[in-house]
Amino acid sequence: MALSCPTLPQDGVWGVHQWENNIQPHIHGCAVPMGAPGSAPPFPCRVTIPLYDADTGLLVLAGKGENLLYCFEVAPTQPALTQVTQCRTEGSTRGLAAVPRLALDVMACEVLHVLQLTDTALVPISYLVPRKSVQEFHEDLFPDCTGMLPATDAQGWWAGDSQQVSVIQGVGRVSLHPARRPTETFTSPIIAGTGPTNTSHTDTDTGHTDADQSEASGYSSPSSLASPGSTATSLSASTGPSSGFASSPSQKSLQSILGPSSHFRHTQGRVLHRDQHLTNLRGLSLTTPGECDGFCANQQRVALPLLSAGGQIAVLELSKPGRLPDVAVPTIQNGAAVADLTWDPFDPRRLAVGTCVPALPGRAQRVPQLQGLQITPLTTARPFWCTAGEDARIRLWRIPEGGLRETLQEPEAILRGHTEKIYSIRFHPVASDLLVSSSYDMTVRIWELSAGREVLCLQGHTDQIFSMAWSPDGKQLATVSKDGRIRLYEPRRSSQPQQEGPGPEGGRGARLVWVCGGDYLLVSGFDSRSERRILLYRAQALPEGPLSVLGLDVAPSTLLPFYDEDTSVVFLTGKGDTRVFLYEVTPEPPYFLECNSFTSNEPHKVKGGICCLSLTPYLCCQAPLTPPPHQGFVFLPKTVCEVREVEFARALRLGQSTLEPVAFHVPRVKKEYFQDDLYPPTRVWWEPALAAGAWLGGQDGQQRRASLRPADMVPVSEAPKEAPARKFVPASVYLEEKTDEQKKEELLSAMVARLGNRDDPLPQDSFEGVDEDEWD
Q1: What is the distance of C-alpha 204 from the center of its chain?
Q2: How far apart are CA 447 and CA 180, in angstroms?
Q3: For the purposes of burial, counting CB atoms within 10 Å of the CB of 549, is it exposed (0-12), middle (13-18) or buried (19 or more)?
Q4: Are 48 and 63 in contact (CB under 8 A)?
Q5: Which one of 161, 187, 265, 573 is at 20 to 30 Å from 314 when CA atoms are compared?
Q6: Could you tell me if residue 549 is inside a domain?
Q7: 443 or 30, which is more confident?
Q8: Which ranges of 71-179 would DSSP assign to H, the alpha helix?
Q9: Cα–Cα distance measured from residue 501 to residue 503, given in angstroms and rounded to the nearest whole number
Q10: How many CB atoms sit inside 10 A of residue 439's CB?
């Protein structure tokens, strides 16, 4: 028997896979030799789930944890097992169940239907027999099967009754022919008046009742609606020609099966029009350290490290999109290779840059003399080369109003205190003129920019610091390092960590971000098998370990998280990736609610086109139409989102030579209203709550919040309630008879309305004629 076995909601090609272990199965007492023609393949040494269909003699075997399903035809003679087909699925098998034969699609020649339970889905698998004609019923494939009425009850079975279902009261077996199949209705127990009422029995262990379990199941068996002595004919007559399944108005059962879902599960990401792109970017530095995001942006401009010597940085205005000229553009001469860079959230013109290599030789240094600021002149004798600890400085640059018009060579200030190269730098989210930096010297230093001095130095790290993040209120600082530890500091209280907890296992890289109002920490990293995963910690219980761990995929780059505090959605992607993962983070299980991921598949981004082999000039191959990987993915502030289009996040995607804006929307029907459920009052991030000196003195501030609602939009919560439309036209409309005079008047009115008012002057009436003598 030739079978095809597609998984219904998936697309793919089924391959053949041979397991390594050799175990001889015994069926009907017949040992099946391995390797013989038509014999069964070897199975792994783990639990095997068998599903046998007595009507067709088909046996499906699947091992728990495996992604292969084998189908055999069982015979009482040798060979006992004949392999028919095998299927490879995307997920590993956690459970397996067969759908009853009465639910098969017989007109599509479906002889077996199996449901596979994986870690994240329930996958239906259909076994089809290819036939030329699908318009007729094939009797040879679908013999009569066992019905759904019991042959006896429990008391009769205990008394020794062994009556078979196939011979009960002469009814025989049930035909699968659509025209001869008995009609059965699955009715919700919530609908009144269908069948006897179930008696509620309290379960002392769980506290639930049978009635609750019946409601959770969502349907009841047809046999429970009929008396034990009724037959299939009487059942069909009593239920009538129903459509098959009467749905329940309650969604409790569906929610209990599928679990909670995110309001942003249907998020749609799209690249905005090309007239908003920045193109013809040349000489981009695509080798920034793993602790750096690759570039940085604010609501006005973007800073891009360049590959040229001297650590040059291009600063481009987002208000001036288009193709950059082929000539050189003004840049910042940083004087050393860029390790990390970030914009001041309270001053869109101030850029902080951390470096890791010696300064550019031959360039003098002229910076303002700030109190307590250590300034080291750049050397002119040593050539340019890259080494750790030579130039562990932080440079502050001020961009002129309107953007760069000439190359900047003089920074506003230089901060020096670290003895090794810089890892990352971050501005304080609440207080102005506060900057924190981490370095290879295993220290974290906090700088007061207004005074130009180092004010705090945090200790306790024993290995490379992968990432650090301020809490939303600015009171705490969290770090994750290569030693596999997460540390939580309160810088104003102690230079040592207040808490420590286990971090990601792998030492390839990690990032962390505060979520859920600052009560939880989300960490992205790797496990020992290089699988990328995200971990959720309770901030005040780091030693207890993660609350939840979610594995994503296997890739070399570290996932860079961005958290939207207004919607509690986290965006995750890495350098060199083509996909952006979206999850809504909740403080209760299951903690991570999956949303639609974003992948750009626009064909104009395909690079390479046609490539030809040099040795064979007539042989060509077409470059695959796959989206190119992005070299960076940075999100813009919430205030740039277009709320009229229900856009809740916007990012900039850096390619090989382009910078493209990507907008994330939530599909809504009534876009004319302000979606206040998606746009709560947002934090005024561009205004500091207090100064650096006040924060260092022990004060805490809280930023105010503002609404994103435009003045001319009404919140959707205040929209007028629409009256429900009538599903059926009332009978009075059809029963009312119009007289001939009424029909005539309606016809004339329609014609007049279509042709217009006849009393209006005609166009030719306004023309001026000529005199009579002019005709001669």
Answers
A1: 41
A2: 84
A3: middle
A4: yes
A5: 573
A6: no
A7: 443
A8: 154-158
A9: 6
A10: 27
The verdict on 416 and 323 lying in the same domain is yes
One DSSP character per residue, 683-749 reads E-TTS-SB-HHHHHTT------EE----TT--BGGGSPPPPPPPSS--HHHHHPPPPHHHHHHHHHH
Give the model confidence (pLDDT) of 371-405 as tens digits. Answer: 333 333 333 333 323 322 347 889 999 999 989 99
C-beta separation of 611 from 619 below 8 A: no
Confirm whether 99 is domain-assigned: yes
Residue ending a domain, among 405, 439, 458, is 458
The amino acid occupying position 746 is E
CB 27 within 8 A of CB 48: no
Written as six digits, the tokens of 493 are: 């209280």
Buried b (16+ CB within 10 A) or exposed e, 86-116: bbbbeebbeebeeeebeebebeebbbbbbeb
The sign of the dihedral angle between the CA atoms of 661, 662, 666, 667 is positive
| 551 and 570 Cβ atoms separated by less than 8 Å | no
Amino acid, res. 83: Q
Q: Are residues 117 and 240 in the same domain?
A: no
- Same domain (yes/no): 338, 428: yes
What is the distance between the alpha carbons of residues 755 and 753, in angstroms, rounded to a whole number? 6
Specify if 477 maps to a domain: no
Backbone φ, ψ for residue 341 (5° rounding): -150, 150
DSSP state of 558: P
Q: What is the pLDDT of residue 33?
A: 40
Are 239 and 356 part of one and the same domain? Answer: no
* pLDDT tens, position by position, 473-517: 999 999 999 999 999 999 999 999 999 999 998 788 999 999 999
Sign (positive/negative) of CA torsion 590, 591, 595, 601?
Answer: negative
Shared domain for 249 and 291, answered yes or no, is: no
SS (H, E, C) 664-683: EECCCCCCCCECCCCCCCEE
Helices and strands: H and E segment counts in the chain:
7, 46
- Count up the domains in the chain and report the number: 3
Which alpha helices (H) appear in 16-70, and where do they start and end?
none
pLDDT band at 183 (very low <50, low <70, confident <90, very high): low
State how far the alpha carbon of 384 is from the alpha carbons of 311, 357, 360, 366, 390, in Å.
11, 8, 6, 20, 11
Phi-psi region of 672 (alpha: psi -120 to 50; beta: other; left: phi over 0): alpha
Q: Is residue 12 domain-shared with residue 144, that is, in the same domain? A: yes
3-state secondary structure 323-374: ECCCCCCCEEECCCCEEEEEEECCEEEEEEEEECCCCCCCCCCCCCCCCCCC
pLDDT digits (tens, 9 = 90+) for 624-654: 445 678 889 999 999 999 999 999 999 999 9
User: For 520-555, how does the pLDDT look when each residue is reduced to its tens digit (9 = 90+)?
Assistant: 999 999 998 889 999 999 999 999 999 999 999 999
Question: Which runs of E-coded beta strand occur in 518-559?
Answer: 520-526, 531-538, 548-554
| Domain encompassing residue 453 | 285-458
Asked if residue 386 and residue 351 are part of one domain, the reply reads yes
Q: Tell me if 324 sits within 8 A of 403, measured CB to CB.
A: no
Confidence of residue 577 (pLDDT cuts 50, 70, 90): very high
The residue among 521, 476, 523, 520 whose CA lies nearest residue 498 is 476
- What's phi and psi for 252, nearest 5 deg? -65, -40
Q: What is the DSSP letter of 443?
A: -
Residues 652-676 as b or e (16 or more Cβ within 10 Å = b) = bbbbeebbbbbbbbbeeeeeebbbb
Q: Rounded to 5 degrees, what angle do the CA atoms 267, 269, 275 make?
A: 150
Neighbours of 181 (CB within 10 A): 13
Tell me how far apart the alpha carbons of residues 119 and 255 are, in angstroms, rounded to a whole number. 18
Query: At 125, which helix (H) or strand (E)?
Result: strand 122-128
668 occurs within a structural domain:
no
CATH of residue 395: 2.130.10.10
Instruction: Give the C-alpha distances (Å, rounded to integers) separating 422 from 340, 456, 562.
Output: 8, 16, 22
Per-residue buried b or exposed e for 448-462, using 16+ beta carbons within 10 Å of the residue's own CB = bbebbebbbebebbe
